[in-house]
Each structure stands twice: as C-alpha cells, then as structure tokens.
Amino acid sequence: MERQPTVAQAPAPHVVFLPFPAQGHVKPMFMLAKLLCHVGGFQATFVNTEHNHALLQRTLAGDLPPGFRFLSLPDAVPHDREQQQSSISTVRELFNSIRNSKPEFRRLVTELSPTCIIADGIMSLGFDVAVELGIPVIAFRTFSAVCAWVYFHLRDLIEQRMVPIPADADMDEPITSIPGLEGILRRRDLPSVCRHGTPPPILNFFLRETESMRRASGLILNTFDGLEGPMISRLSTIFPQIFAVGPLHGLLSNIVKEEPLTASNGGLKEEDRSCMTWLDSQPSRSVIFVSFGSLVALTEAQFVEFWNGLVDSGKPFLWVVRSDSVLGEDEVPSSVKVLSGLKGEEAHDWSRCCVVDWAPQVEVLAHEAVGGFLTHSGWNSTVESVLAGVPMVCWPRLSDQQVNSRAVSDMWRIGLDMKDTWDRSTVEKTVRELMEGRRDEIMKAAVEMAGIARGNVEEGGSSYCNLEKLIVYIRSMC
Ligand code: UDP
C-alpha cells in the first residue's frame, strides 16, 4: 500500500516534462514526473529526444504509474550512435541534438494544451513555447541550489571583470561578491564555464539560460532544506514559489512502497551488476567507489595517474570506466586500450579492484562495503552519496561540479576537494586521508547529513511537504 501525502482531489492536471537530454537531467526529471503521477494523480507527458527515448525504453523496469506517457522530439543524433546504443557523451553533441527542437515542441504543446510545463532550467525553448502559448511554466534546475545561486551572479562577476578568468589569474583569490558565499568560494570554485579558454558562446549560453529561467513562475530543485536551506531561501527572493524536493530517489522510494531506493529511474545505460557480487566479498567500509558520471572524460595521462594513485592507496576500488571515459590524442575513445595496458602490469593484485562500464550506482553507494566515493561531483552523484552517508573525494571537471565540490568540502564538510590536481601521489594521499586519516570526523558529518536527508524525505519532512505544496500549486493552475 502506498503512503501518499494528503492532497485534496480535483480534476487531474496534465504536465508536460521537458528534460535537457543528458543523463544527469533526464533522471531527476523522470523521478519527479513519476512522483506527480503517483501522488497527485497527474497526467504526465515526458518529452525526450528520440535517441534518449530509445535508450530509456531499454532500461525501464516495473510499471509506470497510470497517466504517464512518453513523446519524443526528433534529434540530430547520428545513426551509428543508435547502433552503439550509448548515451551521448560529448557536450557539443548534446547541444546539437536539441538545436532544432523548438517548432516540434511548440506543435506538440499546442496539440496537448497541458495545465503547465516543467522545463529543465537550461531548456529555454520550453520557456519560450510556454510564454508564446500562454501556458504556465515551472523551471526544474537539476543543479544544486548553491550553484543555481552562483549562476544568477554570473553577470555581476563579468561586470567586475572576475569572469572570464584570465589565464594568469590567481585561482585561489576569494570571490567576495556573491551574498552568502563570502569566505567559501575562490576563483577555481566558480562553474567551469568561467574559466580561461571557454568559448564565449558557451558562457553566453549559461548567461542566457539563467536569465530565461526568470520567466518561470516557480523553481523546483533536487535538494533539501537540511543541506541547502540558506541558499534555497536566497533563491526564493527570485522565485517566491520554490520547491526543494530532494533527494528525489529517496522521496520516491519513501512514498511509493514498491519502488526500491535502488531502482534505475531514468537511467540511459544498462547496468553491469557483476560488481555487486565483488562488493559482497569485500570488508565493511573498505572500498572506494570511483565514478565520473556520464560525461566527464579523462586524458590517458590523467587516467594512468588515477589508476596508480588508487593502487598505491592500498584500498580496494570499484571503478566505472565507460568505453568513452578516456580520450585519445585524436579524441578517439581509448579506455579499453589503456585498461588492457594497465592489466598487463603483473605487480598488481587484481582481486583488489573491479572495473565495470556502468554500475547500479545508487545500489553501490548503499552497499555495506563502500567507505568512500571518488566522484566528479555531478549533482545527482552528490545527493546520492549524501543520502547513503558516503564521504566523498571530489574531482570536478564541468559546469556546476566545481561549485558542488567546494560545498561538499567547505560548507557541509562531508568530503575532500581535489580539484585541479591528479598526480598519483595526491590521489593516494587524498584517498588515504578520507579512508584513514580524517575518517572519523568526515564519516560522522556524512552520517549525520544522511540522517537529515532521510528525515527530509519522510512524511512531514520538508521535501515531502514541498512535494505536497507543488501539487497544490499546479492544481491551482487548472
Ligand atoms: N550513474 C549510474 N551508474 C554509473 C555512473 C553513474 O547509474 O556507473 C548515474 C548516477 O547514479 C547519477 C547519474 O548517472 O544518477 C549521473 O548524474 P550526475 O549528475 O552525477 O553526473 P553527470 O553524468 O550529469 O555528469
């Protein structure tokens, strides 16, 4: 029997969901759509790109709630991608895939005439169409609140000439002009698009998308009051209607009883579960789980340094190495080649490591053997680690990850930030610090935060209540 928040019954609203077509965006949007169907009795139309639609169909498990359906937008993904059945993993391809989607989305929304649209915070075509057709629109920013707040100050930083960061800038110079983050952020903690060498169109894209979000009547975030209360209140000065409903995977498994915490909700890749058996054979809290998400790629040199650092740390490790995790000199994916080279080295005890192409990450983080997470600080990975109470070593590369990693280390103190370094001795030292030296202190904070996260998604908790508020808000649009 499902426990459901108490929300007055009224005619079912129909919401069109428009995620940005990357793994880290599709997943939380998918969970939100399911929750609104399960709890609010809503109708949901989940609009994916054709490519992601095909991928998602292969990983869907269990029944979808009544009222949930898919539609897809044509994209420009090359056919060989379809054959590879892999998710898109270069940022350029991602943006290209949606470049011409607006007319089709407009046609589709005109036909559906929904109660409202929930569009990803970087899918301004959703806001454009909503405004043109006079349909209410709510933004779902799948980043942290702290990063969303930083993006709203990007223009000021440009005016102050802090951004774009000059090549010879002191990266440790404090950023003092973002309210609430004084004493926390340094130049190197700003989103990666602020860095020297970022093509101006990319920085402009984020400026434009952030401004565009202001047209939304409300903001949804996959975070929770206990983690980001102060940042959420600051954002509420821009969006009086704000709904922090995270961690969404925790909320979903709490509310929908048949939905295990470990369900692959909105995953675009098939998971290799063989690592679970390997984890079963490892001592409690001994393993460091290594995953850099769906987009981050390492150079061959970086990969080899991480490998050696992990081996030298003496800790067992489970590493997600996608086929496109390593860039060759000519940008040809070469993970397989590099890995087989490393496997040729005889000195290593291979029972101490396990490598998979894609793991059931939420389940891995919840496994008793896992004691640390070496992560790229993508926001989903971060909240998954927070809910599981697993401390992190952060190695951010793209976009919001630079901000998240600083928050993990210096605001919430549940991990260590290793940004901008990757030599083997730093990797070894940082992993040892997390797993041995500062273990008690960091583990204590991580376990406490996990308890707070669980409380926030339980009945009466802030995320649970915010979901109820969101349902009432959308019903009021009918
Ligand atoms: N993920 C997974 N298996 C893996 C690696 C990642 O299921 O082996 C999932 C992970 O649980 C998270 C998502 O992929 O939900 C990655 O999102 P995130 O925001 O952390 O990073 P991104 O891929 O957007 O950089």
Automatic annotation (TrEMBL):
Catalytic activity: an anthocyanidin + UDP-alpha-D-glucose + H(+) = an anthocyanidin 3-O-beta-D-glucoside + UDP
Domain of life, source organism: Eukaryota
Enzyme superclass (EC): transferase
Metabolic or biological pathway: Pigment biosynthesis; anthocyanin biosynthesis
GO molecular function: anthocyanidin 3-O-glucosyltransferase activity; quercetin 3-O-glucosyltransferase activity; quercetin 7-O-glucosyltransferase activity
Record bears the keyword Secreted: no
Pfam families reported for this sequence: UDPGT
Entry keyword annotation includes Hydrolase: no
InterPro entries associated with the record: UDP_glucos_trans, UDP_glycos_trans_CS
Keywords, sorted A to Z: Glycosyltransferase, Transferase
Enzyme Commission number: 2.4.1.-
Protein family per UniProt: Belongs to the UDP-glycosyltransferase family.
Name of the protein in its database record: Glycosyltransferase
Protein source organism: Linum trigynum
